[in-house]
Amino acid sequence: MTSTAPGPLRTPGLSERAAVVLRGVRRSFGEREILRGVDLSVAEGEFVALLGASGSGKTTLLRIVGGLDPGAGGRVAVPESVSVAYQEPRLLPWHRVWRNVVFGLPGSRAELRGRALAALGEVGLADLADAWPKTLSGGEAQRAALARALVRDPRLLLLDEPLAALDALTRLRMQRLIAELCARHGLTAVLVTHDVDEALVLADRAVVLRDGRLAHSLAVDLRRPRDPGDARFGALRGRLLGWLGVAGD
Which of 149, 191, 197, 227 has its CB surrounded by the most CB atoms within 10 Å? Predict the structure, then answer.
C-alpha cells in the first residue's frame, strides 16, 4: 500500500523478523526525482550498508527511514526506537560531554548522569564525561555521538557516514567499536558510506542505490573480524566496485 498523503505512511512496531520495511519509497526535489520507488527489507539484527554514487539518494533514504523527511512518499515500517549518528558529531559546545549524551532525555540529574556514564563507558569515554566538546579529538567526539545514540536504547541505529571525516587509523578503530556495539546490543543498523571496504568490514549485506532504486544486493558472508587482505574479501570488493562503476584491483 502506498501513501497518497504528504510524507510516507509510517508503521512503528514490527514483527520479530523484520526491523525495517520500505515499499515504493519515493522522493523528488522540484522536478528532480531522487528516489523512484525503493523497496528494501532489513531483518532484525541485520547490518546493512547502503552504497551509491554521490547524489544517488543514500542520505535522503536514511533520513526517510529516520522519520526526518515528511516530503517523501511510500510505505515505511520501522521500530519505535530509532537513533541516528551523523558525519558531524553535532555536540552542543555549551554542555559538557555527559550532558550532550543525555540531552533531551527526562530524569533527575543523578539518573541522567548515571545513564550517560554507562553509555560513555561502553565507548571508552567515561574519563571525559566532564570535558567540554571543543577539547575532544575527532574520534572522541564521534564516540560521544555514538554514546548519545546508544543511551536511547534503540532497536534501529542509522549511521550517516559517521567516520568519513576521521583519519585512517581512527576510522579503523571506530569500525571495530561500531561492530562490537551492534553485536553486544543486538542492534539492527543501516550505514550510508562511500567506502566499499568499510561496508564489507561492518555489514551483513551491502546494497547499491542507482537511478533512484536499489540496483544490487550482496550478502557479506565472511567470518568476523574481517581481513581486507583476504582473497574472498577482495572478490566481494571487486563485485561492489564493478556495480559502482569503478574498476577493481
Answer: 191
Low-confidence ranges of the chain (pLDDT < 50): 1-6, 14-16
Cβ atoms of 72 and 8 within 8 Å: the answer is: yes
Cell 551509491 maps to which residue?
Answer: 52
Q: Which residues contact 134 (CB under 8 A, 6 or more apart)?
A: 93
If you count them, how many residues does the chain have? 249
pLDDT in tens, 192-244: 999 999 999 999 999 999 989 999 999 999 999 899 999 999 999 999 999 99
Burial of 249 (0-12, 13-18, 19+ CB in 10 A): exposed
- Where do the structural domains in the chain lie, given as residue ranges? 1-81+155-249, 91-153
How much is the pTM?
A: 0.90
